[in-house]
Amino acid sequence: MAIDTGATAWILASTALVMLMTPAVGFFYGGLVRRKNFISMITLSFVAFALVSIQWVLIGYSLAFGNDPANSLNGFIGNLQYLGLNNVGMDPGPYSTAIPGLLFMVFQLVFATVTMAIVTSGFAERIKFSAYLVFALLWTTIVYDPLAHWVWGGGWAAQFGALDFAGGTVVHISSGFAALALALVIGKRVGFGKYSMEPNNIPLTILGAALLWFGWFGFNAGSALGANGLAAQAFVTTNTAAAAGAMAWLLISWIHGKPSSLGFVSGAVAGLVAITPGAGYVTPMAALLIGAIGGAVCYGMLLFRMKKGLDESLDAWAIHGMGGLWGALATGIFAVAAVNGASGLIEGNVHQFVANAAGAFAAVIYAFVVTYILAVIIDKTIGLRVSEEEEYVGLDISQHGERC
């Protein structure tokens, strides 16, 4: 079957856009931590790109997109038919007849890398680098790959009818609730709640958010897997929801104080997260509502996290976890058949909402529980956290021997 050159060109560009999101997460997080951990946060994200890239081409892609092993695991995980990219080549693959199989593979690769980068929020400023490498490899294999199979690889959630256009469940729910589990296992930073831990570079965080917004066009519009009207639809809904989330967070936070730039960009990311599962299923007007509610929900979750004294202070749980959960539910509500053939609750399709809710809450439970267990095992064996002295000095020096 002939390859569509226009679609191939667009997905190549989209892959590059999404790749940029991984270091962008590092910039976003790097600006939020203290200066002594600035290099560490950027490094964790960039290392995630390299480490997960290797895992993906060796085994991850096959576990996510291979067929179920003799149908014995009921849609839980793929088999090893694509081990080492065996049978993945320049011809169109089973998941898209318009682009090369290799291109579909690498497009999915960059989703896996940015997911791991988001997870680093959960142990910011206190993770032992060696433990991080082990955790990242195991987490991608045991948590991310099965979730990708459930939703995108023909697994049980897809069979039940759950919709996730570009990763609200697979990427954002998984990373957000994984970060929450990690924060609970690793414990609070030394001095958390006793003295100020102000961001060291808000302009860098704003730059990171801008690059995330830019890259998200490849993230969502690229998930149409073609240069077509659906890609344009996803592009517009993505931008609309991001703008609505940014303004909603800005205005709500203004009521409680001043209209901060950090709140504005956090709201933009919240809106982007919220629209991700439904970008190719809802209208721009629905995206406006989804983004605005997403900004409000995530701001409320941030206040809840602060009230409870939980040190998940880069807020992957509040923004990605809860924003992704809202987005998955919203897709089941606002999907309209005129956009991409799928009807949601507003068009009378109760099953679509049920299917999306089932997939989303299953992902919440699986990501949180398995991450928690994995973190405890690593902590009890090689140790998850640096010593108090190393934490005091900062991870830039204690883990990397470098300073800004």
Descriptive keywords:
about 70% helix, single chain, Ammonium transporter fold, two-stranded antiparallel sheet, about 400 residues, 15 helices, mainly alpha
What is the name of the CATH superfamily?
A: Ammonium transporter AmtB like domains
**Elements, N to C (H/E):** HHEEHHHHHHHHHHHHH
Arithmetic mean of pLDDT = 96
Fraction of helical residues: 55-70%
**CATH class category name:** Mainly Alpha
Strand content: under 5%
Count of alpha and pi helical runs: 15
Count of beta strands = 2
The geometry reads as globular
- Going by helix content, strand content and strand pairing, the class is mainly alpha
Largest beta sheet: strand ordering: 1-2
Number of domains: 1
The name of the CATH topology is Ammonium transporter fold
Main sheet overview: 2 strands, antiparallel
CATH architecture call: Orthogonal Bundle
